[in-house]
Amino acid sequence: MSSDQMRAIIGDFLNSRMGEADMVRLEWRDGEQRNWDGDEVKLLLNMVLLARDCLPRGGSVSVERLPAASCGLRITAQGVGMMTAESVKALHATDVSTLRPRGAQGFYTALLASRMSLSINYEDSHDRMVFVTIQKQKNEKGGAGF
Q1: Of 57, 109, 122, 130, which sits most exposed with the smallest number of CB within 10 A?
Q2: Direct distance between the N- and C-terminal alpha carbons of the chain, in angstroms, rounded to an integer
Q3: Which one, of 20, 19, 23, 26, lies nearest residue 4 by Cα?
């Protein structure tokens, strides 16, 4: 899938069920403009869901694909009232029995990343949450029950 197609899909997706007051703006920063494979598409869409969950009052979601060698993505959610959603906290869950329904998205996203030999780190501040995928070391055991 091309970067232009991905940008259009995600932009529509972010605002599909939201009113004017909680609008989420997309900032697209894919400078390389290379195609997205199926696994990248799934991972990106799920990470965008997590970012949107952190913005109950709206804001912006920035998508940046890092250089090809790093296999990475950086997703930034920023807005007034930004919060660490339950789905985000579940990114590093190791026991599915402890998850509540809202945590399922984070757990599933971690599974997708793990299958791509990636892990997802996040850092939150007062009004911004940054998600970054990083390549796992060969001997690193993944989160999400792996």
Answers
A1: 57
A2: 29
A3: 26
